[in-house]
Amino acid sequence: MIYVIIPALNEEEAIAKVIADIPESVTEVVVIDNGSTDRTSEVARKAGATVLKESRAGYGYACLKGITYLKDQQQYGDIIVFLDGDYSDYPKELTSLVAPIEKDNYDLVIGTRNTRLLQKGALTPQQRFGNALATRLMALLYGGKYTDLGPFRAISFDALDRLNMQDKTYGWTVEMQLKALKHRLRYTEVPVNYRPRIGESKVSGTLKGTIMAGYKILGWIFIYAFKK
User: Fold this and answer.
1) Cα–Cα dist 104/211, whole Å
2) What are the domain boundaries of the chain?
3) Which of 64, 142, 165, 213 has the fewest CB atoms nearer than 10 Å to its CB?
4) What is the pTM of this model?
5) What is the pLDDT of residues 77-131, one digit of tens each?
């Protein structure tokens, strides 16, 4: 079975579009409202999602809330897909994202946005720089072959459970990719479409968010270097 986790903060204009485009093959869509002050929860619930509340601010906190909710119902072979709630990703591409896990026994699949499928203006210059720096450092320090830190990703529940994810905020994606290398997971990337998001980014759209995200991402990478 396939489950989708969507962290969301003030995404009432986008969340229904995201949920509507998710393929029918998905068993359950779980939206984690991470402290929204708009109608995100109401809109998501009406669109058919299970809605959870996580008052502690942070992308990682929201993801961990969704994982905890799903943990009791997971079985061997189940897949969890992480997807943003801003409609920048193309949820219909979920089928191609999970295919390497279902057909070729991969553990982790990252939707990479560094392709001709990336629409103009969808990634800010600071996002492009940050992705390039982080993936280059992971290649140099750990032999990683990533090209992106894309949030649209699929992972088998068994592999996710082994990673014991900890980050509560901006370092979630890079933590997963670093731990995948440490645990020698079978991973691959699938090119995905990516468009300008609906509304303003809570991370790259602010100076504070950009600085904090960079700090956490680089922190994870170098902490792991010292642990080796």
Assistant:
1) 38
2) 2-227
3) 165
4) 0.90
5) 899 999 999 999 999 999 999 999 999 999 999 999 988 898 988 888 888 888 8
User: Any idea what DSSP says for residue 61?
Assistant: H
Using CA atoms, how far residue 30 sits from 94, 194, 222, 223, in Å, is 15, 22, 33, 31
Question: Pairing state of beta strands 153-156 and 108-112?
Answer: antiparallel
Cross-strand bridge partners of residue 81:
4, 154
Q: Determine the CATH number of domain 2-227.
A: 3.90.550.10
Sheet holding 153-156, edge to edge: 50-53, 28-33, 2-8, 79-82, 153-156, 108-112, 187-191
* pLDDT tens-digit map of 196-228: 989 776 554 444 555 666 666 777 677 765 555
For residue 50, the surrounding DSSP H or E stretch is: strand 50-53
What does the buried/exposed string (b/e) look like for 49-85 if buried means 16 or more CB atoms within 10 Å of the residue's CB? Answer: bebbebeeebbbbbbbbbbebbeeebeeebbbbbbbb
